[in-house]
Each structure stands twice: as structure tokens, then as C-alpha cells.
Amino acid sequence: MDHIKTPKVDHVQLLGKPGSRTSVSGCLYLTATHTIFMDAIAHKETWILHHHLSNVEKLPLSTRGSPLKLQCKTFQSLTFVIPKEKDCQDVYDALVYFSQPASVENLYAFSYSPQSLSLEQKDGWDVFDPVAEFKRQGVPNENWKASDANEDYRICETYPTWLYVPDTVSNPIVSGSAKFRSKGRLPALSYYYKPNQAAICRCSQPLAGVGRRSEEDEAMLASFLRANPNRPYMYVVDTRPKINAMANRAAGKGYENTDFYQGVVFQFLGIQNIHVMRESQQKLIEACSGSSATCNALQDALHGSGHLKHIKTILDTSLFIAKAVYDEKASVLVHCSDGWDRTAQTCSLAGIMLDPYYRTFDGLQVLVEKEWLGFGHKFLHRCGLIRGDPHEASPVFSQFLDCVWQLTQQHPTAFEFNERLLLHMHDHVYSSQFGNFLGNNCRTREQLKVSSRTYSLWGYLYRQREEYINPLYIPPTGRYLLESSGHVQDYLWWHGLYNFHDRSLHSRESADQQLSQMADQAIVLEGQVDCLANRIAALRQKLGMTGDVPDGGDTAAAVTPEAEPSEEHQSAQDSELLSPVPEPILDWVSPRSAKQCSCATVLDQLSYRYHCLHCGVVFCSRCLDRRAQLPTQPAGISSRVCRQCSKALR
Length: 650
What we know:
By secondary structure, the chain is of the alpha+beta class. It is built from 21 helices and 18 strands.
């Protein structure tokens, strides 16, 4: 708190969008973790997490005061006008300090303590078990085995200790191959497609230069080829543009020479590097926060950024990998430069296309743990979580989430999770609120002891699981290839992410919320039907009637003989059977008309609204942790309810 010289500033104005003359007056509060703006009239709070800040800029003095512009990694942009220049400087200095911690130990996760949701520190850290996940895929088997070559990270510091390699590979071959790969990131199994024994493997570029070779690396790839008995060839996919790979070859790195690697079909697929992607995102940010926010101007800015072109290229590359496995039954080795950016994107997306498990709520978390956290994506640098080289930052994981969202739009019934899960994952990757994404690899996170010192994002998400379920989801009956579209017009601007904080572009009730409300009402009605059917079955049994039990009834209750009850117990049963069944309240409060939660939280266009399944009132995310058994539900089952119903139903 020593860095906060001015914890409160009065008469601050929050300006509207550039070009707009609207503004809101209120108070600005500074804490060690958040900046809070309190609207003086509506009493609405705007919270800005300091770790979300990507840029803090003092603008030239105006007649109204000293403007301070905040740009967030979540694409939120705010401009405050502070009456006194000294106060503005104090706020500026504090925000610069808190938004750019010098050490990982200063990040929010190490001080975060949840106040609700009954979240325990141990929750979520056991989501991913590599042994269980690869066993689900069918590994180990006669062709693949677990390797201890990287035990204690002795071969590669940025790889996990668990590695799966072909059964015929010895540890000296593994070690020799690692020495011939950039950063020691040797070829290892990423995903095994059990139906045809093809595999996706990943690594970094070889240190081939001009004419260099490695017998161990060549033997390693030969063993990958032999591990798939269905094809005499395998693909090596270099996700970079060819010109970039050739430039790396001149620097002593490069790509595989097919003269030295037998049975290899080489393919360049042209995903741009982190610097191009960073510049593309910067153009996006300027387009979203610019003053010329007309439809045509935004469309021109989007086209100029090349954003959707990059997204399509990533998905096209992922589809090439998935089709090679699914259609050709061929194994694929994927790499880029160091194998932790484009390789992570394409291997994980190819997995989603091939495996329906990765399209579920649990499966997506396992996929992120395996391909991104396990194989060492540099979250600390790419997300700019601490003070460092700004040229290391790039929206690699954001692009992955965008690609997943594109697939959910092209295949709306194929995913168990909805858009909100992707948005919250994006938010918390940058928030540093949870320990999952701290550090650049597993070894760093072990050294930081994040699993014992911080909370897990997966535990937090699981506590609110029902918020993230897609009501249109249809569980698959078998495996099939989920293909991304080849048509440019099918790739959409994700305004839910890039314009999330722009109130002018949001309807007050999204289609997702409407569908969720209908699904909730269906749950209530189904519970009522089951309750009535069981009541009818019990009455038929008491009256000695035989015949079919109505659908939904408990057949066991209708035919299972019971011991003769006591007279007192019999009277209680009769009273219960003759009592009226509570009728569900279906005249729910419209989300459009709900302005405030019972906890006094103001609900605006950006607030997600929840219905109490007992009385139908609307409440906010802060009150989501309350559950109770409804009158029509059997024992042991609980539903989401509001504060008042939670107390009444105890």
C-alpha cells in the first residue's frame, strides 16, 4: 500500500467512447489489486483488475482536468478525467507499478482468497492425470510406452517429466534427439488415435543448419514411422511460412532434410510468427477503441489487421493434421520454431477435431493442461504477466480460444461448453488470479509450489459448471471428424470477446441466456412430471391397482412389497399422498426487466443473469453459490436458488 499515495479521488469523470460527449461522474478508489470507479448517480461499480492493464497513458491536459487512459488485455478501454494533475500523477504511478509486477511472487494468485463458492485450495489441481489421459487414448500399448528419460527435467527443462515415445526407442536415442532439437524439445507423443493407430507428435525445429544431421534424431523419427503399421509414410508439418524456416536454417536451425529422413512427407503451412500476431492484435485494439466506430470503418480495420485470415490459417493447418490422421491413417509430427506457440495451437485444435472428449467441459481443461501447460507454452511472457520484454508478448492462447469459438459457431451442437467458458478462461489467463498459468513450464510451477500456495482455475469453474453448459449440446454416438469451414465468410468477428465491454454492441438478453432460461424451465417441469408420476404410482399401489405405471414413475415403488407400516407411519404416508403437489412457478422475472440483484449489485447489459429455479427471480453471479432441494425433487438433489428461497427451503 506504500505505492498508493492517493487511495480515493472525488469528482472523477469516466468518458464515453471516443467521439462521444457523454461522461459519468463519480469516485475513483485504488487498492493493491483493483481500481474501482463508483458512479455517483447509479451507484454502479466498475472494477478494473490491475493485472488486466496492458497500458496506462497520461493524455494532454484539457479544460476538464487531466485525462488518464487505461487499456486492458481484455479489450476494455477506459478514460478517466481527474480534476487535479497531482492526483492524476499519483494514480498513474500506482497503476504502472501494480500492473507490471517485477516478480512472479507479486502476482494476484499468491494473495487471492475467495469469499464465496465454498472453493477450497485443493479443488481442481487433480483435473489432469497424464497416465489416465493417455490410458484413455490407448497408450501404452505394443507400439508406445511411457519414458522416464526426462525425469527431474534432466533432458528438457520446458517439457513435462511424463513423456510417451515409441516402444523401440531407448533413452540414449531420446537424449541424442533432444540435443539436435531447439531448446532440447524432442519429438514426443501428443495424441494417439486408437481407431487406426495413427499419432500426432510434437517437437521443436531441428538444429539442421546447412547439411547437419543427427543419427539419433533420424532413428527417433524412423521409430515414430514404425509405430504406425498402417502407413509406410508420415507427415512432418512445419507450421511456419517456408521463408521463415529458411531464415532459421541460415542461423543453424531450420527444418528436416528429407534426404536423411526416410518415409517423411514434408509440408509447410504458413502460420505467421508471434510478432506478426502481436501487431495484428494491436490493430484490432485500435479498431475497437477508435472514434470512427461505424460498421464500414470497423470492417475495414478488421480486414486490415488480418485477424480472421490468421484464425483461418491456424484452423486450416489443424484440419490438415486431423485429416492426415483420420482419412489417411498417417502419423504427423508437428513443429514450429521452438514448439510452444503454433505447435500448441494446431496440436490442440487437431485433437478437438478428432476427439469428442475434448469438446466437453472436462475435456477442454484436460487438453489445455496437456498441450499448453504440460508442454510448456510461455504464458508468463506471452501474456505479459510480469515486467519484461514487450516483444515476447503475443496473443497465442487468445487465438486458440478464438479458433475454438469459431468451431462452436460452425458446429453449435458439438460442444458441451458455451461461449462463457471461453471468455472466462481468457479473462483468467491474464488476471493472474489463479495459479494454473503462472510460470512458463511445469518445472517453474513446481518451484513456485502453485498447487499448494494458490487456487486452481479449474476448481473455480467447476463450482459454476452449470453456467458454462451449452443447452444445444448433443452427445455424439461415435467418433467423427469435426471439420472447420473452408469458406472465408464462415469466419466471424467474436464481438463477445473483443467488444465485451462495449455496451452499445450488446443486446440486453443474449440468445445463450434465452436458451438457458428455457432449459431451466424444462428442468423444473420435468421434476414436476416425475413427482406427479411417482405420486400416482404410490396411490395405485395403495389402492391395490395393477397395470402400467405412467411414464416417469418409479416402477420399483409400484411393485416392491414393503413391511406393514405402523398406524402412525401409515397416517403420515396417507397425509403426504393426499397433500397437494406444489405447482412450479413459471411466470419468471424477465432478464430484460431485472435492474438489480437482491444483494444490491446493479445489473446492466454486460451482467449475466440467473433465474432461481424455485421462485423465478433474477440474481447475479455473486449469489450463484446457493443451492437447495426443491419440493418436487427427491432427496439428495439440489438446484440453483436465490437467497430468500435458500433460507425458506432449509
